[in-house]
Amino acid sequence: MGRKLRWMIWGLSASFVSAPVLASALQSTLSSHGINALKLHQPPYNLLGRKIAIGQVEIGRPGIFGWDKAVSENSAISLAGVFLRDSPAKSNTGVDSHAYNVAGLMVSQDKALPGVAPQAQLYSSGVGSTRNMGQPEQCLTAQHIAQQNGQDVRAINFSFGEPLGRDPRPDAVLDGNALLTLCLDWSSRVHNVLYAIAGNQGRGGISIPTDNFNGINVAFSSARGGIFNKVDVSNLVAGNQRSSNRLAGKEFNIDGRGSIGLVAPGSNIPILNPDGRLNKVTGTSFAAPQVTASVALLQELGDRQIRAKKPNWTIDARRHEVMKAVLLNSADKIQDQGNGLHLGMTRTLIDKQNQNWLDSDAYDDPQIPLDPQMGTGHLNTFRAYQQFRSGQWPPSSTVPAIGWDYGSVDVGYTVDYPLGRPLRQGSFVSITLSWNRLVELNDTNNNNKYDVGESFSDGGLNNLDLYLIPGDGAKNLNAGVICASVSEIDSVEHIFCPVPTTGNYKIRVHFRERFHQATQPYGLAWWTVPTSHPRK
């Protein structure tokens, strides 16, 4: 491989490599061996993220060709806007190679090394030196990016984090109450944006805002035999997060609340440096942007369907709760053997102990919706497309085998989604429910935006439950439940279980316990395997 340069950035490594090695790695990363996004770039899909705005928040910012000297040899990345916090960036100021690498994974237009969504509009801002800046400035920066493109930014990438040691709270822990964490959960709801957060790794140290409720934390996978199917050893995990651990509260969410939502490729990922040289990088910083940019591909599909006034498509397709449910529900867990019983999944993902999702507490315990290492599984952008293209199906009538909805439920009540066809015995059902923690801004000057010096209030998390029940199931929640996800502390419920007998079934959403508002909006996605016979 010739001369090699290595360095560490927030626990992330990178090295220069030859073009053939990068070409091979690319096929593993964006092809079916990775997230399978390249397939969506080609006919008949033709999805490149056109006219979809996504965002990036980092310590520094990516450089612009023809404006910053650092990228004078590389025109692969086109940016919609670059900033220093909430002001326009200045030429040759704040340019950072890490930010450029991350941006390239999302929107590179290089023919040999394209980004996940090469035609998406990327708005990027650097917070600035961490010696003088902290969570208030980071919040201000995130808000500024969320307000770009006429306040229509669909997803924002966070490939950096704030150490707990810099948090001003005494004895700070990951309880969701750091200012930046509160800010992102507030922004998710107010600006309707999905935040993709680089998960913790190595010895930790970038833990805030991984204690968010409303975004997706991303761990990273490494390749075995060319296929990304193993949680990389560098990911920081505590095993069963519901149990006591010496790091709990320091590097993991307190009370065992799930941290990781998805896994995406992050080991030896090919990129271009600002100077145009070929490179490969490793870390969660390079897994999260693949989730962010995948949102752009899906949202291009959604906007295309809405413009064409297709049935079962409304602007609800733009809701971040829907995007979160779709991405989590379509993740790969167990490779399908060709009979469709495992929903056409393309790989078996294993954790650091070489165990798969069926070995996890999340599979056995209805109170644990997310595996502590794997979340719901490995990002598969093409399967997310298949999940999303099925359209929105409200609960007023029977629903198809695959679908999603943006709905609401009142406290103490249930909402049922009867499946239109019987399900096959032995087939698996995947169902994901996503909703928001309520965070409100203490807006002291009443200007409807966050200003440095202001704070947020945690309004709590309403408790929703998710069930698969027989099609003739009564209102009694405990009667005939086939599968359930009933966490009291997570903002996601997830079911992945086999169907015991061929028959009619329905999905039930239950609003068990109120902590703030009496009506709770939610995103719901489901994927099942029907028989060839219609529902009787």
Structural account:
Residues 1-17 and 240-246 have low confidence and may be disordered. The strands form five sheets. Strands 3, 4, 5, 6, 7, 8, 9, 10 and 11 form a nine-stranded mixed sheet that branches. Strands 1-2-13-12 form a four-stranded antiparallel sheet. The chain is built from ten helices and 23 strands. The N and C termini lie far apart (64 Å). 55% of the residues are buried. It has 536 residues and is α/β, with parallel strands linked by helices. Helix content is 18%, strand content 24%. Helix 3 (97-107) runs parallel beside helix 7 (288-307), helix 4 (135-146) packs parallel to helix 6 and helix 7 (288-307) runs parallel beside helix 10.
Attribute tags:
four-stranded antiparallel β-sheet; 536 residues; alpha/beta
Quote the average pLDDT.
Answer: 89
Largest sheet: 9 strands, mixed
Tell me the number of strands.
Answer: 23
Rg, rounded, reads: 22 Å
Helix residue percentage:
10-25%
Oligomeric status: single chain
How much β-strand is present in the residues? 15-25%
Structural class computed from helices and strand pairing = alpha/beta
Shape: globular
Query: How many individual helices?
Result: 10
The low-pLDDT segments are: 1-17, 240-246
Distance between the termini: 64 Å
